[in-house]
Amino acid sequence: MRLYNTVELRGYTAITDTVHLSEREAERHSEHNYSKLRVRERYSSQMDRSMACSPPLSRVVVSGGTHGNELAGVCLVKEWLRGDSAPCLERSSFTAQPLLANPRATEQGVQNTTLAPPSPSDPYELVRARELDSLLGPKGSDEAVDFICDLHNTTANMGASLILYSLSDYFCLHMLHHLQTHMQLAPVYCVVFEEPPSAAYSLDTIGKRGLALEVGPLPHGLVRADVLSQMSEGVKLILDFIDLFNRGTLFPPCQVEVYRKLEGLDFPRELQSGELNGTVHPERQDRDFRVLNPGDPLFLRFDGETVRFKGERPVYPFFINEAAYYEKKLALWTAERVSVSVPALRVRGGLGGAGGGD
Amino acid sequence: MTSCHNYESLPAARRVAIFGGTHGNEMSGVTLVNQWIKNETEIQRPGFQIKPFITNPRAVEKCTRYIDTDLNRAFTTENLSAEKSEDLPYEVSRAQEINRLFGPKGSQEAYDVIFDLHNTTSNMGGTLILESSKDDCNLQMVHYVQNALIPMSCSVLLTEHPTLKYAASRSVAKRPVGVEVGPQPHGTIRGDVLDTMKKIIKHALDFIQLFNEGKEFSPCTVDVYRITESVDYPRDKDGNISAMIHTDLQDRDWQALNPGDPMFLTFDGRTIPYEGDSTVYPTFINEAAYYEKQQAFVITRKETLTVKGIRVSQA
């Protein structure tokens, strides 16, 4: 297992990806017996000298209803579009724009639409994706919006989870730190699906920066006042962070824990027919981000037999029993918990304050 | 010493059906019924026939509530007597087929008992739904099931109401019984919810077997929640929902809602209180499928029903 990587990305160099295991986990896997103190001593002087800088953000979009039946985001965006609560999108350095990403699915109350497409080869979502790319992108270009926060809900017990695509996304990792420090209504987690931007396919990757804010548990097709408050607080803190950044705040180096996606696990199925023959074990249900050790109960077959986790090392499951993933043959994802040392962050140029140089 | 006046002599239940998938995304019933179809020995009992049956297979295949229209509202006289045609909504054709197999509704040939398995996003726990306050056999059954499930609680919802009673799939039977377990998000299978539903069915079938074999069930009382009213979400002038279930009401199915208690919360943070004149007991609070039916929750009133003793008739 790697101890560290150095990465040159967008003009700065920093230490990424220090894998840290607690003492208890380290005892169980002696080949990973690194101590946090030793890592810090080795790299602290290098970390102090590095600073991540990037220009201020002015075009910020908050989107909801990418999946039309994930209603908390739909409700928030509809309120903002009506103009009633739009002041909460305003900050001194920018005003975020609300967007209903998939209006047709939202109207139907479904995840994706099933209406007949205008042409046989173009499903509605594909047409809409191209529209969004031209509205908010083009993806990968200088014209793309600066930041997209895409709002989602999940039936899994994931609190408020930020979904990122890179362990060296320092801007978003500082944002994560800000949320974890200030969020009161829900625990905050971070999941990293490591994918190169060109391969990632979700709405939040159209902008120069972005993330998905996933709040759960919430059954699809309904809204709960408590979940709406959690999502609202999450958006507020995200926009607060961007504003603080734009106004020249120096964010000192910090350490954050993230969950780096490993692999998806399917439900138990009949060998021949492929039909489901079990579900998430009651002792694992709702335990997103709690350690799953080899031998722990994982699934319960309908005939009463317990299926235990057969992995070789502890992992952290998430998206446990998400309704939309049944058709994708996913009962849950596993992740490894990674401690990331994030260098200091400051705006370059723009409003108030000289940014640090590259 | 038992009094003959308090005991009713009733025929044995010889034909029982268990419906799953009336709503294709309510997965506990789909799962259990599919299991029992595959492995019939698991569900069979001596002395009476038990038929597990998937009522809406196309909706189950797509994991959606319904294809054209809600099957669990489709068993109206009008639908059941409509002329067969390819233009009929899928669920209406299906209702006619189910009526043919398990009914006809209202006739002597109809099945004795049908259990219709459902899930809800509401925090209702295990709930048995009855349509009649006069069906002593069904009431004795729910009494038996409630006692067998202790310490787990099981509420009884009575939908005996001139307009709020709906034409459910199970209504083709002489004695329909709805089994509703929640909370569970639609399209998911929770192990704990599945287990609760399995236990309810097991105890219900135990009752039928015991009754058929001659056990007497003494007079008793059963606390039920009788449906009185359906409450919609507040809406704006365009008909859009303008408030949500208040945090203080969310998940409090079967608990007292007093006049003045918070009921809804508008999106801009204003509380709307309950303005009725007496304490009521809401349920089906925030059921996802009821948004389109203009129903935020239903109001019930607690009632204690006196139930006659029963024994099987020896005919």
UniProtKB/TrEMBL annotation, chain A:
Q: Write down the required cofactor(s).
A: Zn(2+)
Q: Which domain of life is it from?
A: Eukaryota
Cellular localisation? Cytoplasm
* Major place of residence: cytoplasm
Per UniProt, the keywords (alphabetical) are: Cytoplasm, Hydrolase, Metal-binding, Zinc
The record's listing under Pfam families reads: AstE_AspA_cat, AstE_AspA_hybrid
Indicate whether Cell inner membrane appears among the record's keywords: no
Recorded hits in InterPro entries, A to Z, give:
AspA/AstE_fam, AstE_AspA_cat, Aste_AspA_hybrid_dom
Q: What is this protein called?
A: N-acyl-aromatic-L-amino acid amidohydrolase (Carboxylate-forming)
> Which species is this UniProt entry from?
Huso huso (Beluga)
Automatic annotation (TrEMBL), chain B:
- The highest taxon in the source lineage is Eukaryota
Is Endoplasmic reticulum among the key words of this record?
no
Q: Where in the cell is it found?
A: Cytoplasm; Nucleus
**Residue ranges occupied by any Succinylglutamate desuccinylase/Aspartoacylase catalytic domain in the UniProt entry:** 13-208
**EC number in record:** 3.5.1.15
**Chief subcellular site?**
cytoplasm
Is Zinc one of the keywords UniProt gives this record? yes
Q: Which residues form the AstE/AspA barrel-sandwich hybrid domain?
A: 221-302
Any idea which UniProt keywords this protein has? Cytoplasm, Hydrolase, Metal-binding, Nucleus, Zinc
Swiss-Prot/TrEMBL cofactor(s)? Zn(2+)
PANTHER family found in the cross-reference section: ASPARTOACYLASE (PTHR15162:SF9)
Q: Which family does it belong to?
A: Belongs to the AspA/AstE family. Aspartoacylase subfamily.
Return the protein name.
Aspartoacylase
Species name: Huso huso
